[in-house]
Design brief:
The protein is of the alpha+beta class and 112 residues long. The chain has helices at 3-13, 62-75, and strands spanning 19-21, 24-28, 34-38, 41-46, 50-54, 79-83, 86-90, 95-98, 103-107. It has a 6-stranded antiparallel β-sheet with strand order 1-2-3-4-5-9, covered by helices on one side. The protein has a 3-stranded antiparallel β-sheet with strand order 6-7-8, covered by helices on one side.
Length: 112
């Protein structure tokens, strides 16, 4: 895992507001949800009961993948991988396609 991704995950776990490194930032909003942005576009939101993921309005890239994979792994029972211009999100039973215009809501694993 790249150092910036490790630092991002620490900022998420600690709910650090206004953390940023290079093209990645973490913020805590007024509802205490954690927002993860890449190049200023939100790619993830982590709340007490679910996470919300997106491609930030662009096609899937390796950089977006490197930011979303550890978030999805740590907070849900899903996995995510890049397949060309989109992501495939799976829970071992079903596969879902996440494209540049989509937002996906995943239940937090600690609630199951």
């Amino acid at each position: 895992m790249r150092k910036i991704v490790e630092q991002m995950m620490i900022a998420i776990r600690n709910k650090e507001n206004s953390w940023h490194q290079g093209n990645t930032s973490v913020h805590v909003d007024m509802d205490n949800d954690i927002l993860v942005c890449l190049h200023g576009k939100q790619i993830a939101s982590i709340s007490d009961d679910h996470i919300e993921i997106s491609c930030g309005g662009i096609d899937a890239t390796n950089i977006i993948s490197s930011r979303l994979k550890p978030i999805v792994k740590e907070f849900t029972n899903y996995s995510i991988h890049r397949k060309g211009k989109f992501f495939v999100v799976t829970n071992g039973k079903k596969k879902y396609k996440l494209t540049k215009g989509d937002t996906m809501y995943l239940t937090r694993k600690d609630l199951k």
